[in-house]
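Chapter review. Work through the record for Hpt domain-containing protein before attempting the end-of-chapter questions.
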Amino acid sequence: MIETPNLEYVDNLADGDTAFRQKFIGILKEEFPVEQEEYLDTMKNVLFREASEHVHKIKHKLNVLGLHNAYTLAVQHENELRNGEQSLKEEFLSILKVVEHYLKTI
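Structure tokens for Hpt domain-containing protein:
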């Protein structure tokens, strides 16, 4: 089953406070592209330890966006990168693309 990003967690957290909701969404839209680019750069330069640190930051955003299976995969990818492995790279990249597209639509 393919997960679809959503704002359910953000909406519950905001509890009707639209200013808070918009600020939270703004932070996601601002931080995610930077963290994604940092991840891509470290992967391109085969800096797996550093890449794992970027995955660590990104995984929390996946959870906030209701992508619980993606979060689990990110945890595995983070641990794998710390061991110098990258077998989950393509799956993680596809998740990043989904999130990138979603953030552009909200």
